[in-house]
Design goal:
Length: 224
């Protein structure tokens, strides 16, 4: 089976923080939901940013969707195929209304306005968010914002989901709704979270970023 995303000897250093990724090898295959754990500041979000070209690797290789990705132009396609859910929904919602936010991605991919609006409405309905189309995004609750950002990502029809602390700051009901939604999706995923119960119910395997190295976790190491 061919990996959707693969890194080889991936290296990244911050000027003051030092090395956060040191020759990291990683592969994500279709259908996998990989939990990415590690201490605050370990480099987990940096890793996701590198995969979609929001940061440029200092060394090593990133292969995504069958091609080596090195320059900014190489990552344009990657960002369309790997939907990134940011930790803070307010970093992702920037249009006045929900419908405009969800339609923005398809419009950016070259869909007509009619097509983009239809995709946005269908995506919202599939997540149980019909009726939110004309709502003002900055007036939504935290759980509602999270579901709308997920809709905005799914409207682009990605192959992979990159989720950075998706359950952060959600109440119990919103968290369960998000979990149920993600469990029903067929997408391969990389999920960063400090919510072990959330990860236990969602992930198919776990890796941990420790001392700039990515370590495969087993059930025994998770239990410890």
């Amino acid at each position: 089976m061919t990996a959707l995303i693969e890194t080889r000897d991936l290296f990244y250093r911050y000027p003051r923080r030092g090395v956060v990724l040191d020759k990291v090898d990683f592969s994500l295959y279709p259908g996998e939901r990989v939990a990415l754990t590690g201490a605050n500041g370990a480099g987990k979000t940096t890793f996701l940013h590198l995969l979609v070209g929001l940061k440029k690797a200092k060394g090593g290789e990133i292969h995504a969707f069958g091609q080596l990705r090195k320059e900014e132009k190489d990552f344009v396609e990657v960002r369309a195929k790997a939907g990134f859910l940011f930790q803070d929904p307010d970093d992702q919602l920037f249009c006045p209304t929900v419908l405009e936010d969800v339609a923005f991605g398809p419009l950016n991919l070259g869909r007509s306005r009619t097509e983009a609006i239809s995709i946005a409405r269908d995506t919202l309905a599939s997540l149980g968010m019909e009726g939110f189309e004309d709502r003002i995004t900055h007036q939504l609750s935290g759980g509602e914002k999270r579901m709308i950002t997920l809709a905005a990502v799914l409207a682009m029809d990605p192959d992979v989901l990159l989720l950075d602390e998706p359950s952060n700051a959600l109440d119990r009901d919103a968290r369960q709704r998000l979990l149920d939604t993600l469990q029903a999706l067929p997408h391969a995923m990389i999920i960063i979270s400090h919510d072990d119960d959330f990860l236990a119910q969602l992930s198919t395997r776990r890796v941990c970023l420790v001392d700039a190295q990515l370590i495969e976790e087993t059930e025994a190491t998770v239990a410890v």
